[in-house]
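## tool: complex_structure
## caller: assistant
## args:
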Amino acid sequence: MSVEFLVKRLVQLLVLAFVIAATVFVLMRLTPGDPVALMMGQDFGVTQADIDRKREALGLDDPLLVQFGRFMGGLVTGDLGRSIVSDRPVRELLLERFPATLELTLVAMVLSFGIGVPVGVIAAVKHNSLFDRLIMGINFLGLSTPSFWQGIMLILLFSVTLGWLPSLGRTTYGFVPDHVTGLHVLDSLITGNWEALKYSVRHLVLPAITAGTSYSAIVARVVRSSLLEIMRQDYIRTGLSKGLPFWRVVRVHALRNALIPMVTVAGLEAGSLLSGSVVLETVFSWPGLGRLLVDGIYARDYALVQSTVIALCVMFVMLSFVVDVIYSLIDPRIKW
Amino acid sequence: MRIKLHRRAVVLALGALLVTQLGLGYAQAQKTIRVALTGPIVTLDPANYRNRNTENVIRNMFDGLYTVLPDGRTVPEIAEGVTQVDQFTWDFKIREGITFHNGEALTADDVAFTFNRVVKEGAMEGQTSPRKGLMASLQEVTVVDDYTARFHFAAPETELSVKSAAVFMQIMPKDYFEEVGVDGFIAHPVGAGPFKFVEASYAERVVLERYDGYWGGAPDMPGEPGPAKLDRVVFEIVPDPASRLAALRAGDIDIMQGVLADQVSVIENTPGVEVKTGPGTNLYFFGFNTELAPFDDPRVRRALAYAIDYDLLVEAVYGGRADALYGIPLSWNSEIQHDGLEPFTYDPERAKALLAEAGVTNLSFTIDTLGDNLLLAEAISQMLGEIGVDAQVRTWEAGALQEAVGQGSRQATVHLWGNASGDPQWPLWPVEPGYSYWRHDEFLQIMNTASDIADNDQRIAAFRRAYELVVEEVPYVTLVVPQTVEAARGNVLNFQPHPGGRVNMHRVDLATP
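## result:
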């Protein structure tokens, strides 16, 4: 990997962050609705002077360019500002929510690849068989089922009817592991708190299934179609004709070459899940980034929305960097 | 081959372990109640919020001078009572022997500190408290002696307005706050309420536990005074109504706030859970921009008021769990209400006749409203359709609607106004801050001066006249007040929804199985 590539990526990140910061800044201010008016309420006792004073204290009465400069200046020094509504540092709010999102993302990804890859491989190998059609049909169903509906159905079945799994939150009160990383499952393992581990896993099952199954359908389709193409290649036929076991050819020679599109899907999935699924977080009362952002938008919490979007944008760029690096690890012909 | 078998065995064993673990039930600590709030809380500083979920948590940790009972009465809590000193001044007598969660005694010093931080300019760490608007014309609170706090108002206020201001702010410990600062206070809030702080994650849950040194609570509050019965209250943030209901049915929560009208029958048919209703305080109204034709003609506004079948709204939109208002502004202040106001009973023929008299034909306009009010607005649109008026409904998100209506760029709106206070001005709110743009000289004269009338009878007479004018001229039509509908599991005892939506856990108990 060349220094040139790294510098290029860094410059790309900075430019993108600036453009996104400017766009979000302008869009939030173009959106009708005033954070202070929404916050102060519309009572007889609230005078225009009170609202003006609050605006002044928050710096909202300054010219837009000054506000933008202040915001960008803060970003450069790592200060993401304070939430207008809760008066807490945005950095603190993001750190509070991020572990929940990260944990769900990781488990959902493991699940989607754990299901998607074997299903895709079998569907490709047994191409046009009954199994292939059945599995692709189910896949299609998984893809086309909205996650809010799927989530509610899972809750109704496993929480309400069967009573096996909890319906909300990251864990049950009283079984929260000591904070190490913020990831409950990992923290439970690190601290050896098996009760907390049990509850954390139980709480993760339904949201992870909901998040994971729609992606497992995508993974399965991608794996299937790339394998189908690869299996027709000459080197596969050569391997098989020289007597290599079939599954060894699939696993070692075919699947490795199908990894590139899988990594692409993984990158997209990670990006999408890490930016927080509002629907999923709402259905499962999961305290992640998506709801933080949406609540911020409703309250016109400028600082919160701007900084959250910037943080997500940086995360996306870093993910795409990681994906590029993985490409070159998988395929030595790809050089950066 | 051996290795493969080994792997399989491990996978099987792990799978079996997972399945058995998942299948196990999980025990709750005794007398821990779980309450589902409808959204995240924003702070634990009692002076810095205007948010119902935040209020629910804060008011279980902090007590106020006065409080509102589930039946709507305003009664003393930390205060023993209030006496008027002069036109602008009121003295609150504080109960002795009340302590904060850190053991410090609550005195008039704490009361003055609490209210001055709210009403004085920039007193909240350089900012002005968003609760200032709830404090009537309160300017300052001074200390008369350890247990008497003097409230100085800028205008003569009714006793009810004074008490309302006292309800809307909970008492904070001055010394502790000054010692730890605002960030320290928010991280570990200390109040004088029935429950003390344990831990909070604003987006997920807040945990409180019983304060054994609690003074006992408002004597008029139904239930047994003394420390709380519950060991612990866990507020869970559950924003989605369908998920809240599922969690209630699954037993993951014990009390559910924000029950939707269409969920009531599901709850009623579910064994082990109960619907709980109480009086409501959200007044829904149909407001017109009276500066735009043809809404500048009172006959047109009156016609539309007669075209609404209020009883049908109650049945169809709220499943009977609402009170119809028939165009009469509702006040919690019984002094203001009078029976002389003639309600707009549903009369489509009269509506048509009034429109014809005003020379209005083919009336077509847009009703702007919030997504939450869509059903109500569409019901009205359909009723208006029956007298030949074409009213299209358009929904908005709260911030956008607030700004658009404030700028006068909308023709009509279906909106709501929380009216838990007995302040006689509040039910007139849909007119005053700009929803109707109604420039009626006599009405504006009353609104600008009535609060300053020192004589109680004269002031009441003035407000009664304002109410009469609203009914005569119809700048807006009051529609319904939906009841507060909540739900609880069957083992929850002594829980009653509060008109203001407040969840008071002090006297709630859990039946032991």
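## assistant note: The domain at 282-482 of chain B is CATH 3.10.105.10 (Dipeptide-binding Protein; domain 3). The mean pLDDT of chain B is 87. Handing back to user.
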